[in-house]
């Protein structure tokens, strides 16, 4: 129980805190566009400070009224620093805001007071970083404020750290015993550090609850893939290639398993905050965030389906779409709402504070590799397939002016590839949303088709990338991709322009490892055999060696000096929360060869269409909780309502 005296004391403490605590060290007040050099952009912290000093009727929050509602997270590791995240609030929920912001409100400034009751009480939070799991030796610490203006999120940069070193961290409400869970994180290697190995887990497409367009039922998925990575504890960093959330309405809360909130398609800042907050209550996702530093990029569903720079397949940048689709939120406003919530909730850096849409950035991982994270979706992408313009996209897919990335990012990307080679990094890992290989599908009538929403529909951007790699002899490129909910493994080639031997792999300039989804629907909701019959329709592509679209899961990427290895894992089901994991296929790339090593996948895979033909179907899985191996079969992948 909090006594009046205790409240008085806390009030004194909070008055004392401003000399120590800071708004601007909480990066979310500077997000996405404010920095100290232009304080009129972003959130007006001077105004929030004045608001907090006005005499008010309610007392400030006592620590007992506050909770660390969504555990902790870390991300974007550099050699000497890492981003730490938490949320401490009087409520699980975001402050409600339904009124559209209008007038002269600065871009991205979503100051709550403009449209909803803002809390007058900032909350002082302390963070500490430890060398040891027992949390005794502090190596960095600080105090920051959070408030309803940033949905009570806290994002700080822990600094002064040693490279490639594991640390633990914890938050507490200032001057109290109210603490967050203890998180673990790891810094990046120093750029010139000589390393034996770095290991990544690569995820994409985690749908809390999905509607199946192809089946007579809704599909719902548990995030077993996140849980398996956390339980195995076999990687240094987690990479997420987007579709971290989905924007759709799905299920009735309180009735349907994993029904989403808010119970509607999301448009407002409140909507996006609430949806992100719900996802972050998933125990497997929480476990992964608390254990590994994440390096994420968004795909389309962090904002809306099949997006490009000027709209989405659902909400178009037209009067008709604005009036008739959703609650009359414009494309630009919806994008700002989603982006703001994303920066608030994700442990991600803003490498360019003047560019609120920029998430493309890179990480130097010792002398082993550069991790180049690009945005082929929302930044500056030319028009995509919006479902009713497919023929148009086919007609223009080869236009030189089309770009997935926009000129600014494209030029940065090519420079990154060159500087990575120049500095002698062994590998270039390109973290992007979309499948890069020029994949075509054979239709029943014998005709060929390709996706209008992938690199194939932006041939000029694809060609410029390949030209840069081939002409500058930049080899050992590893493209990693998500988006399709299907496993695809290919040699990276320039079809029709540079010679390629599809038997030996000679002529390739790298490889592509594209991964299935954490839980989103793949090639079939029915069976492995059904998914394999669909996968076979892609057998005409010379560079494509494996297609598997039944199992949900993820892959690990192990980078070493002389070879890279991709290990694909499936979840036998996501219809229930469990810890079974099915090894699907292992691929090796020798540094001296720059293509998939033969025999492919060591000669056999578990499931899917495989060029070599040796498909085991053993169903032999390991329980990542107990270590026990067993042949397991669940008969269904998704919950069927
Ligand atoms: Fe997806």
UniProtKB/TrEMBL annotation:
<dbReference type="InterPro" id="IPR032093">
    <property type="entry name" value="PhoD_N"/>
</dbReference>
<dbReference type="Pfam" id="PF09423">
    <property type="entry name" value="PhoD"/>
</dbReference>
<dbReference type="InterPro" id="IPR029052">
    <property type="entry name" value="Metallo-depent_PP-like"/>
</dbReference>
<dbReference type="Pfam" id="PF16655">
    <property type="entry name" value="PhoD_N"/>
</dbReference>
<protein>
    <submittedName>
        <fullName>Alkaline phosphatase, putative (AFU_orthologue AFUA_6G08710)</fullName>
    </submittedName>
</protein>
<feature type="signal peptide">
    <location>
        <begin position="1"/>
        <end position="21"/>
    </location>
</feature>
<keyword id="KW-0732">Signal</keyword>
<dbReference type="InterPro" id="IPR018946">
    <property type="entry name" value="PhoD-like_MPP"/>
</dbReference>
<feature type="domain" description="PhoD-like phosphatase metallophosphatase">
    <location>
        <begin position="200"/>
        <end position="568"/>
    </location>
</feature>
<dbReference type="InterPro" id="IPR052900">
    <property type="entry name" value="Phospholipid_Metab_Enz"/>
</dbReference>
<dbReference type="InterPro" id="IPR038607">
    <property type="entry name" value="PhoD-like_sf"/>
</dbReference>
<feature type="domain" description="Phospholipase D N-terminal">
    <location>
        <begin position="70"/>
        <end position="187"/>
    </location>
</feature>
């Amino acid at each position: 129980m909090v006594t009046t005296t205790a409240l008085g004391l806390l009030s004194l403490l909070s008055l004392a805190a401003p000399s120590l605590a800071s708004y601007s060290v909480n990066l979310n007040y500077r997000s996405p566009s404010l920095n100290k050099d232009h304080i009129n952009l972003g959130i007006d912290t001077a105004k929030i400070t004045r608001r907090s000093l006005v005499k008010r009727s309610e007392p400030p929050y006592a620590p007992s009224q506050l909770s660390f509602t969504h555990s902790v997270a870390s991300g974007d590791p550099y050699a000497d620093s890492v981003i730490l995240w938490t949320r401490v609030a009087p409520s699980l929920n975001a402050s409600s805001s339904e009124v559209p912001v209008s007038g002269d409100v600065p871009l991205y400034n979503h100051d709550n007071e403009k449209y909803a009751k803002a809390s007058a009480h900032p909350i002082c939070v302390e963070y500490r970083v430890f060398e040891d799991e027992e949390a005794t030796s502090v190596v960095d610490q600080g105090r920051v404020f959070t408030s309803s203006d940033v949905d009570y999120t806290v994002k700080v940069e822990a600094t002064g750290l040693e490279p490639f070193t594991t640390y633990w961290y914890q938050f507490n409400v200032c001057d109290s015993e109210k603490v967050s869970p203890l998180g673990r994180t790891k810094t990046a290697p120093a750029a010139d550090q000589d390393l034996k190995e770095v290991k990544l887990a690569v995820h994409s497409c985690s749908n809390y609850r999905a509607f199946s367009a192809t089946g007579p039922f809704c599909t719902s998925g548990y995030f077993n893939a996140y849980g398996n990575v956390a339980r195995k504890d076999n990687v240094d960093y987690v990479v997420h290639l987007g579709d971290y959330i989905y924007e759709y309405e799905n299920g009735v809360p309180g009735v349907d398993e994993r029904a989403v909130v808010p119970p509607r398609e999301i448009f407002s800042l409140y909507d996006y905050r609430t949806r992100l907050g719900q996802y972050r209550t998933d125990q497997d996702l929480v476990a992964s965030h608390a254990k590994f530093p994440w390096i994420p990029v968004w795909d389309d569903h962090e904002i809306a389906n099949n997006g490009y720079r000027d709209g989405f397949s659902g909400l178009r940048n037209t009067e008709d779409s604005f009036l008739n689709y959703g609650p009359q939120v414009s494309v630009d406003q919806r994008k700002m709402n989603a982006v703001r919530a994303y920066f608030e909730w994700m442990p991600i850096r803003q490498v360019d504070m003047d560019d609120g849409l920029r998430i493309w950035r890179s990480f130097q991982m010792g002398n082993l590799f550069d991790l180049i994270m690009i945005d082929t979706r929302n930044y500056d992408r030319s028009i995509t397939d919006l479902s009713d313009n497919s023929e148009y996209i086919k007609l223009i897919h080869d236009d030189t002016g089309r770009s997935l990335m926009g000129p600014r990012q494209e030029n940065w990307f090519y420079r990154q590839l060159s500087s990575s080679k120049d500095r002698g990094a062994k590998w270039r890992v390109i973290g992007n949303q979309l499948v890069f290989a020029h994949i075509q599908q054979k239709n029943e009538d014998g005709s060929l088709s390709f996706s209008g929403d992938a690199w194939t529909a932006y041939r000029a951007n694809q060609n410029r990338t390949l030209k840069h790699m081939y002409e500058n002899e930049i080899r050992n490129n590893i493209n990693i991709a998500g988006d399709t909910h299907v496993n695809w493994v290919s040699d990276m080639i320039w079809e029709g322009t540079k010679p390629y031997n599809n038997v030996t792999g000679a002529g390739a300039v790298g490889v592509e490892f594209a991964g299935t989804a954490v839980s989103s629907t793949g090639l079939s909701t029915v069976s492995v055999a059904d998914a394999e019959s669909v996968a076979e329709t892609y057998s005409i592509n010379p560079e494509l060696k494996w297609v598997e679209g039944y199992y949900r899961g993820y892959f690990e990427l192990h980078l070493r000096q002389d070879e890279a290895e991709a290990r694909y894992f499936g979840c036998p089901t996501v219809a229930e929360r469990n810890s079974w994991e099915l090894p699907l296929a292992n691929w090796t790339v020798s540094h001296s060869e720059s293509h998939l090593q033969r025999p492919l996948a060591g000669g056999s895979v578990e499931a899917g269409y495989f060029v070599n033909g040796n498909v085991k179907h053993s169903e032999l899985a390991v329980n990542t909780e107990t270590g026990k191996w067993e042949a397991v079969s669940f008969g269904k992948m998704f919950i069927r309502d």
